[in-house]
Design brief:
Number of domains: 4
Strand order of the largest sheet: 1-16-15-14-17-18-19-20
Number of helices: 22
Shape: elongated
CATH topology of the largest domain: Rossmann fold
Helix content: 25-40%
Largest sheet: 8 strands, mixed
CATH architecture of the largest domain: 3-Layer(aba) Sandwich
CATH class of the largest domain: Alpha Beta
């Protein structure tokens, strides 16, 4: 069985998710819960700007800590809700450097599949996430034109307001933009073509409808409810509506009662007996259970009206203005009324005619069903978009990479580390319990395969599970023998980009007949048919010093010469003996016993090197190309001379102490005619990235 892999989402919000007493809190809970239901760990970062957080830490913090995997508060370092510097807010005008510091610190220590940012004025957060994190912007409201809309309704703008050019900056930073209704989604699509724009209307999970039997009796009061937060839209609209409602009450005096709940009540007043200002309610379920009709008398507003979504979710009939029902499908003329007076008259009609109330209930139930369908389809679209954008690089390996005890393990570790800067990188392989924790592999994730499942079927099953939520942009196989062949058979033709580690003999045999030239270190296949020629790439063994040799490569260099066998032939072994005997007269010489570098070999190489001082020169003898690359890489890390000798390389041009060119025809010539100092000075030290930069350019753009 596979273990050790979790999808993670970081949520940044200026609004708390609990309690659900405001519409925007409900929306934040809904969208965040969607990712939780999809199997993501939710890490919630709150930059609090709400009044109750300005007064202290509310008790609701306990609910958020219980609901999410982790919960953090980013303390504001500047006054909140600042007025615009110019005519309109700049998109980053409310950004706080403390958020920058937090995100910079966090992303250096953890990888998140998704960064969900609430509100466009916090879109700068996307600049701190790595490219492979899917960036989702939850708009909530459209802030372009907000000031002008308020002015047209005789009200000064509050909160945040900006212009399309500024809001485009926020949209372009995101991979996915979530609009709360179709009209705003269309606006974003006209403004920019960069992100995926998804309309995700608000709709809560349906609650079992609670209908009071008394509501159908015209002798009983018809209970009408409005629940709203203390914001300018609610306050202005409700003040104007109450004037209309009070006039209507005085004229008709029907059995009609209006319950107004929420913080909006702190800004309202009414002396009419049928109007009850309830104030804050602790349980909105109780509020909706005790009303028969929900009213939404908004002549101007932004976004979608969460109160409509709530009412429909609770199975309540709605009487609303056209503006208030925008974003939902009206199925009754009482859903799209033109004025406050129209709303008041509609309520009077329902109070006198309870059959009309039953009709409105049925039609509102249809609107609720349509809203649910739109929401479900939006969630499906969001899930598919995240999966398509959640790109990962996956390694299938047959050895504990973190161990780094062999050159091959170390090379794969450094390869995975390079990939982790391009995309989220996941290594599927042996458990490797007890392996050292390596800070250089902090960004690499390891999906361990338990011993009883460590076979091709177990590894392919773990890979299949990954593909349910991610797009694999590159699949790297580094496994030998029958396992490597079985993995290749199980994946070819299924992934667009597959790279075989041809250091592994079994994989080299697979690549050789297909490659135009004999594969070097990697064989990169592009295409789904599995029969493309592929691309062969030679690379340096190590991009940086091996983890097991940290400190050793920076220690003072000894004058010794290190002779390194690389699968030498019998003739080359004799040459090693000649070099050892002749060079010992000029400098200390060490002949390393480790003979090969390849698959599964040299488990004690790094320990052997650490047991002796770092040399001033490495001479590799033999025709094992992989071994030569290992020694060349180590010489590069040590910043010392390197020379490769083999039967096939003679004659070789070197230099003597005087600086003259010397043509050496044999191992004896090298040992006799050239001093170690001159040899070190004129040796072919490999510089540069030797193939890894080319690999980056091939993989990173995908």
């Amino acid at each position: 069985m596979a273990s050790g892999f979790n999808r993670k989402a970081l949520v940044l919000s200026p609004i708390a998710s609990h309690p659900q007493d405001y519409g925007n809190r409900n929306r934040i809970l809904q969208t965040t819960s969607f990712f939780k239901q999809q199997g993501f760990e939710i890490h919630f970062a709150l930059y609090p700007i709400e009044p109750d957080w300005a007064r202290g830490i509310p008790d609701s913090v306990k609910e958020m800590r219980a609901e999410w995997e982790s919960f953090a508060i980013i303390p504001p370092s500047r006054p909140l809700h600042q007025a615009s510097v110019g005519e309109h807010h700049l998109i980053d005008e409310w950004w706080d450097p403390t958020i920058s510091n937090y995100l910079d610190w966090l992303f250096k220590r953890q990888f998140f599949d998704v960064l969900l940012v609430n509100y466009t004025y916090f879109s700068k957060a996307f600049e701190y996430a790595p490219r492979s994190t899917v960036k989702v912007l939850e708009m909530h409201d459209l802030f372009s034109g907000r000031k002008e809309m308020f002015a047209a309704n005789g009200v000064g703008a509050d909160f945040f307001y900006t212009v399309p050019d500024q809001e485009r900056i926020a949209f372009d930073r995101a991979d996915i933009v979530l609009a709360i209704k179709d009209g705003e989604a269309a606006f974003v699509e006209r403004l920019t073509s960069r992100p995926i724009v998804i309309s995700l209307p608000f709709y809560m999970p349906e609650k079992p409808p609670h209908q009071r039997p008394e509501r159908l009796s015209s002798e009983e009061d018809l209970r009408v409810g409005f629940l709203g937060a203390n914001n300018l839209v609610n306050v202005v609209n409700m003040r104007r509506f109450l004037k209309s409602f009070e006039r209507t009450q005085q004229i008709y005096v029907p059995n009609l009662r209006l319950d107004v709940a929420g913080e909006v009540c702190t800004q309202l007043a009414s002396n009419v007996p049928g109007v009850n200002l309830l104030g804050r309610v602790e349980n909105i379920d109780d509020f909706y259970d005790n009303v028969d009709v929900v009213v939404a008398p908004l002549m101007f507003s932004t976004g979608i009206k969460i109160k409509i979504g709530e009412a429909l979710s609770f199975g309540k009939p709605c009487v609303a203005t056209e503006n208030a029902f925008d974003g939902y499908t009206p199925t009754d003329k009482f859903h799209s009324l033109k004025s406050y007076d129209d709303v008041s008259r509609a309520l009077v009609t329902l109070a006198y005619d309870r059959k009309r109330l039953k009709l409105l209930e049925r039609r509102s139930a249809l609107a609720a069903d349509l809203a649910r369908q739109s929401h479900v389809e939006g969630c499906r679209t969001l899930g598919r978009a995240v999966q398509r954008l959640a790109k990962v690089i996956v390694f299938l390996v047959d050895q504990p990479v973190r161990d780094g005890s062999t050159p091959h393990q170390e090379r794969i570790a450094q390869w995975a580390q390079l990939c982790s800067f391009m995309r989220r990188t996941i290594v599927i392989g042996p458990d490797g319990r007890g392996a050292r924790r390596r800070d250089d592999l902090a960004r690499v994730e390891f999906l361990a395969i338990e011993e009883d499942s460590f076979d091709a079927d177990g590894m392919l099953a773990a890979l299949e599970k990954l593909t349910e939520a991610h797009t694999v942009v590159e699949l790297v196989i580094s496994a030998g023998g029958s396992l490597g062949r079985a993995l290749w058979d199980g994946v070819r033709g299924r992934f667009r980009h597959i790279t075989l580690d041809t250091w592994v003999p079994a994989l080299g045999e697979i690549a050789t007949p297909k490659a135009i030239v004999e594969p070097a270190d990697l064989w990169m296949m592009t295409g789904l048919d599995g029969g493309a020629p592929g691309r062969s790439l030679a690379t340096n063994a190590f991009r940086y010093e091996p983890y097991a040799l940290r400190g050793w490569t920076r220690s003072p260099k000894d004058s010794a010469i290190l002779l390194a066998p690389c699968s030498p032939t019998e003739t080359e072994k004799a040459g090693l003996d000649v070099l050892l005997a002749a060079m010992e007269e000029k400098a200390p010489v060490c002949l390393l016993e480790h003979d090969t570098i390849g698959e599964g070999a040299s488990p004690g190489l790094f320990d052997a090197l650490r047991s002796r001082p770092a040399p001033s020169l490495i001479v590799a003898v033999g025709q094992d190309v992989r071994g030569v690359r290992v020694w060349n890489s180590l010489a590069q890390q040590l910043e010392i001379g390197f020379l490769h000798l083999s039967d096939t390389r003679f004659p070789i041009l070197l230099g003597d102490d005087s600086g003259d060119v010397v043509l050496s025809w044999s191992y004896g010539d090298v040992a006799k005619d050239v001093s170690p100092a001159a040899l070190a000075a004129r040796s072919s030290l490999q510089r540069g990235d030797a193939g890894w930069g080319t690999y980056w350019n091939l993989v990173a753009p995908r």
